[in-house]
Every structure is written in C-alpha cells, then in structure tokens.
From TrEMBL:
This is Transglutaminase-like domain-containing protein. Residues 241-297 form the Transglutaminase-like domain. Gene3D superfamilies: 3.10.620.30. Pfam families: Transglut_core (PF01841). Signal peptide: none annotated.
Length: 421
C-alpha cells in the first residue's frame, strides 16, 4: 500500500511539473488570424487590456465575447510587466453601401466601416427624426471627428453631404481620401498591419516594463520617420508614417498611439496648437500616471544632438509652456517617476550629475574618453546652482574646440546637449 501511495504521489508531481512546463513555454506573441468572434480567456491574476484597431487599451474581463469587426490586440499584464500578446481579426462579412437606421448611435459603426473600406459613396436612410441640413452636418461631423481620434488608422480628406428631406431624411455621403487609387490605399493598410505586427515581434520582449516598451517604440519611430516638410495628405496618416517613413505631426502621433495601445499601454491622440499652428501628440498612461509625448518635437532631425529626447514623457506644467490643448478633455499628466530626465533607460552618451563632486569626476571622464557628443542632465538646480555659462565654459575647456550645443532648464534640472567639432 505504501508503494502504491508513493507511486501515486510521484505521478501527481510529474503531472503538476508537466503542466507548469507547458504553461511556461507558451509563446509570447500569438496571432489567431481571422475569427468570427473571440471569448476572453482566464488569465490567473493578470490584467487584460484590449485594443480594437489601435483604440485606447481598456481592461476586459474573462468571458467577455468580442464580436465587432476589427483588428484586436489583447495584452496580458502583471502590474506594468508584459506577459503576452494575442492578436486576432474579426472581418466585415459584408460589402454594403446603403443603410436604414433608427438611431444616430448606429452611425459610428457605419462610418467606421465606410472609412476603413474606403467607400467613396454611401446612402443612409433615417427611419425617424427630423434634421435641417446644418443639423445633419453637425451630427455627421461629430461622429467622423470622434472616429478620427479614437481609431488612428481611420482617415479621410473631405466629405460632401447631400440630404433629401428634413423628416426621416435620406442622406448621401461622398468621401475623398489621401490617394485617389483605392486599391493602393488598401495595400497601404495591409502593409501597415504587417509592419505593426513585425515591429511588436522584433522590439517587444517578454517581461518588459511599460516605460521600456514605450521607449523602444518611440525611439524606433523617431529614428525611422522623416518629418515631411513638403506635406501630402498621406503624410497625415499612420499608413504614410509606417510604410513610407514620412509624416507630419498627426502621422507620428497616430502611429505611436496604435503601437502603444497594441502592447498594453493606454494612449490617447491629443490635438491642439504649438508655435501658433495646429499640432498633434500623445498622452500616455504608465503605471504611475499620465505623460505627454510629442515625437514630432522630440525628433528635431538635423538639430538633434545625442540620445536625449525633449518632449518625451512630460507633465502638463512643462507642456503648457509651448503647447495649447483642451485640458478638460484629458486626464492630468502628473507622472513623475518616468519623466524625460529620470527615464531609467541606458543610453549611450547620456550622463546624470547630482553634485559638484560628480561633475568634477565626469569632466575628467569626458576628457579621457574623448567623446565629441554628449547629453548631460544636472539635477538639483536650486541647491547646486548650476548655470549654463559655467557648465559650457567647463565643457569648452575639456573639448578645447568649438561646440554646437542646446541648453535649457526643466524640472529643477539643467539639460546640456553638445557636439564637438
């Protein structure tokens, strides 16, 4: 009997060990392809965040059934650490240009379908309600505007509205897009989808913290997108940014929004004004709070020195010095731990100085290493009284040559970026 009990115990141990090994070897990234619906699985103690077509990643409960068409990324998180990603697509099983509706609420999915499939003309018959042409235009514009900030891949250039009658009207909507060739636009979409998945597989690793994932994708976009000084309609889209590597501010921001939401980092698209012109950037939620990220301003092209990015993880207080936006429409950005000056990402050529003693040691190191390019963050300006003039004078003595530099104060710190000649 004892031998039998011991044997049974051994078998149970083997089964438990086998189960754990099987769980441990599950792939980090799973693509399920096309499905008709999806039921969210059990995830032990982990948090599940779901993003549909790049929309704001939100918590989803076990057993939730997903049925709306779209490309979904489900991120499994333990605190701020990424454990796994599941991608699946629910296709549109229709090819439709005409609708009858009972409520304005139905317009969101109809117009999302229309824009994602680059429909040039659609008609919608309202079964009830009364609208003047101006009222109808306000309704349509509001839905389109909401779609544009919610789903970063959705895009159009202009639309024309024709309304027949005021009571229970029938409307005709005609759209123009970034390119007149619809098959080309659909190919851009396909290429963008493939590139998004490729980037996630290549750059995102199991166990990455939220700030690490945020950084690696932001750094990639900055280094691989050129700001389009002679802009086209395509430069305002994530398709142009991701596939052609050329964009203006909203192309940067939409690309970043889609990528971060797809890896479990809730991210919003912010529009406002900077330098007296319309501008767009992102509001990113990390574990300790929200941060502004403006990849366009971080990517200063030929003016940029080194690996420190200004306007990457900033507070409302810092951003409002140069940017204007409707603050009431967004959460407050008050994160502190992962501000640009504290971001714990190892980067070549970035040095952090908290005291005069550390500065003396760094000057000696810079002279010995012969570095010609560096970013130096001087902390505790109020206490140490760092001045731009004295620091630059010390750098010139070390370099013994002319330098190109930028210098500014932020968060009780002094930032010096310089390049020797």
């Amino acid at each position: 009997m004892r031998k039998h009990i011991l044997l049974m115990g051994f078998m149970v141990f083997i089964w438990v060990l086998s189960s754990r090994l099987t769980y441990a070897t599950e792939p980090f990234f799973v693509s399920l392809g096309s499905v008709q619906s999806y039921t969210v699985p059990y995830a032990e103690q982990n948090t599940l965040l779901l993003s549909r077509d790049g929309s704001y990643a939100t918590k989803v409960q076990k057993g939730s059934r997903i049925t709306k068409p779209g490309t979904y990324y489900l991120s499994q998180l333990e605190s701020d650490t990424l454990k796994g990603i599941t991608k699946f697509q629910i296709p549109y099983n229709m090819n439709q240009n005409e609708w009858r509706i009972d409520s304005e609420k139905e317009l969101t999915e109809i117009l999302k379908y229309t824009l994602e499939n680059y429909k040039e003309k659609i008609t919608i018959k309202f079964n009830k309600g009364s609208y003047t042409i101006n009222q109808m235009n306000e309704v349509i514009y509001k839905v389109l505007d909401e779609l544009m900030v919610t789903y970063p891949k959705v895009t159009y250039v202009s639309y024309k509205l024709t309304s027949y009658g005021n009571k229970a009207p029938k409307i005709l909507l005609e759209f123009t897009y970034a390119l007149p060739q619809i098959p080309t636009l659909k190919q851009y979409d396909k290429n963008t989808d493939q590139k998004i998945e490729q980037l996630i597989k290549q750059l995102i690793q199991p166990g990455m913290k939220d700030y690490e994932r945020e950084w690696v994708l932001g750094d990639y976009l900055i280094k691989n997108i050129i700001y389009a000084k002679q802009e086209t309609h395509l430069n305002h889209t994530m398709q142009g940014a991701i596939t052609e590597g050329r964009a203006v501010c909203d192309g940067y921001a939409k690309s970043y929004m889609y990528l971060l939401n797809s890896i479990g980092i809730p991210t919003q698209f912010v529009t406002g004004v900077a330098d007296n012109i319309p501008h767009a950037w992102n509001l990113v939620k990390l574990i300790d709070g929200y941060y502004h990220v403006d990849l366009t301003w971080a990517d200063l092209e030929e003016d940029h020195i080194g690996n420190f990015y200004n306007y990457f993880n900033e507070t409302d207080t810092y951003m409002e010095l140069t940017h204007i936006w409707e603050k009431g429409h967004f959460p407050k950005a008050e994160g502190k731990k992962y501000l640009s000056i504290y971001l714990p990402i190892p980067r070549e050529g970035i040095y952090k100085v908290s005291s005069q003693k550390e500065w003396q040691a760094l000057k000696k190191q810079l002279g010995q290493d012969g570095l010609k390019e560096a970013n130096i963050i001087f902390y505790n300006v109020g206490e140490e009284r760092w001045s731009i003039e004295s620091v630059l004078d010390s750098i010139l003595k070390v370099e013994q040559a002319a330098i190109t530099y930028s210098a500014y104060y932020k968060y009780d710190s002094l930032i010096i970026n310089y390049k020797g000649h």
